[in-house]
């Protein structure tokens, strides 16, 4: 008898930013109630860095620049889609912005508050890595 192994789903690439302004961190809250960092899909011909800057601006209205690379995370979203998100440490020049309608709230909070607010352990680990990197480079 021949058995077939399940095909592994190729993750959909995305990019996002852990955006800092001093020791304050930019978070967004989805309608599901989950708190996370701004992120999204790459557009055709777009690099992960370009997508991260664009997604942060589109989702939050905050202009931010890339200060470094962070680890890529993998997960399956609520639609069953495998995702691979390239993360970047980013610095915001201002806290002013306007949230996209996808989110019910968001903005900058202290790093300590972010560590208790983020919904997913992977995001808390990502924030810890970002804060260490910012401290080393700062």
Automatic annotation (TrEMBL):
It holds the Pfam family NUDIX. GO terms for molecular function: bis(5'-nucleosyl)-tetraphosphatase (asymmetrical) activity. GO terms for biological process: AMP biosynthetic process; ATP biosynthetic process. Keywords: Hydrolase. Residues 10-131 form the Nudix hydrolase domain. InterPro entries: Nudix_hydrolase (IPR020476), NUDIX_hydrolase-like_dom_sf (IPR015797), NUDIX_hydrolase_CS (IPR020084), NUDIX_hydrolase_dom (IPR000086), Nudix_hydrolase_domain (IPR051325). SUPFAM superfamilies: Nudix. The keyword Hydrolase applies. This is NUDIX hydrolase. The lineage of its organism: Bacteria, Thermotogati, Deinococcota, Deinococci, Deinococcales.
